[in-house]
Design goal:
328 residues, alpha+beta, 6-stranded mixed beta sheet, 11 helices, 8 strands
Length: 328
């Protein structure tokens, strides 16, 4: 029976929640999957992939199942359970509405979709908690993958492994997800054009150490933010204050022209309906939380970006409360 996997995009590093806080949003990566044992056509690893949506025009999206990020992740899950290829014959049609390399968790969504794909075609019966374990073996940003998997607003952390965990025997990740030939990423991310910001590049500008004052600043605001987001009606000034950051946004302003001006000038007092504003993930996407006046707020941000010679578009999204889903 055919089935569909649907994984939302996510915004991570919400305000002061660097590598901690994320939210799932209503743009989706969708996989339409069919397993047809009666199909006698041969295919690599018993799998055929087709693709449409964001980045479809790029020649760098690899549809070979032994090189595509989604199917390589699924293979890792399958091989950890003594299944070495896809069931014959597996067809996967990818419909992607998540912009690539723009700070909306495109790679995190691909990893979550791949883990779920392996679970479904392998009939493994994994819980969401166990699927998160597999996600984190591949994508070490828990705020993105947890938001995409569980949905809604999430707070995350990475556990320290004890000696018993370290002694567990797993198939080495490198056997299934080796570095592609030539060092080129053959997953869903195309080469990064000027208006995109790679996560690796955005992390390189961050300091290796922070002052106590900056750490305390963020701890205070993440405590305020989690409380403020649970209030009804929301308090714009409290949420705006709670979304201030001293850990990553100040250091990434050189990578994203116009960022400082936007964060300093777009406020609830000057833009009614706005609750808070921050960089989404590594950027360059800006996340603006709002209850009203969406067009005016978006056009002000677009104007500020245009003044810095950055062209952009805007989308009105809502929290994706259900997270990743499978329907048959």
């Amino acid at each position: 029976m055919p089935f569909t996997i649907r994984v939302p995009c996510s915004s991570a590093n919400i305000g002061p929640g660097f590598d901690v806080a994320g939210v799932a949003l209503t743009r989706f990566l969708e996989l339409q999957v069919q397993v047809d044992p009666s199909n006698s056509q041969t295919a690599t690893l018993n799998c055929v992939i087709s693709y449409e949506g964001e980045g479809a025009e790029s020649e760098h999206i690899d549809l070979s199942p032994d090189r595509n990020l989604l199917t390589r992740v699924a293979l890792y899950v399958l091989r950890c359970h003594d299944q070495h290829e896809f069931p014959a014959k597996t067809s996967i049609h990818i419909k992607n509405d998540i912009p690539l390399g723009r700070g909306l968790g495109s790679s995190g969504a691909a990893v979550v979709a791949g883990v779920i794909l392996g679970n479904e075609v392998g009939k493994l019966g994994l819980s969401k908690d166990r699927m998160l374990d597999f996600c984190l073996m591949i994508e070490r940003h828990p705020d993105n993958v947890a938001a995409a998997l569980y949905g809604g607003f999430v707070g995350t952390y990475l556990s320290e492994l004890d000696p018993e965990d370290m002694a567990r025997k797993e198939i080495p990740l490198s056997e299934v997800l080796p570095s592609p030939a030539g060092g080129i990423d053959t997953g869903l991310k195309p080469p990064i054009p000027p208006q995109e910001v790679s996560t690796a590049k955005a992390r390189k500008v961050l300091p290796s150490q922070y002052s106590r004052a900056d750490v305390v600043f963020n701890m205070q605001r993440i405590a305020i933010l989690t409380h403020a987001l649970g209030q009804s009606p929301p308090d714009p000034e409290l949420i705006y204050s709670g979304m201030q950051d001293a850990i990553h946004q100040p250091y990434r302003k050189e990578l994203i022209p116009g960022l400082t001006e936007i964060l300093q000038s777009v406020k609830p007092k000057t833009h009614p309906g706005l609750l808070g504003i921050c960089l989404s993930g590594a950027g360059p996407t800006i996340l603006a939380l709002a209850t009203d006046n969406f067009e005016h707020i978006a056009q002000e941000i677009i104007k500020k970006f245009a003044e810095a010679n950055m062209q952009c578009r805007w989308s009105l999204l809502e929290p994706a409360r259900d997270g990743a889903t499978v329907t048959r």
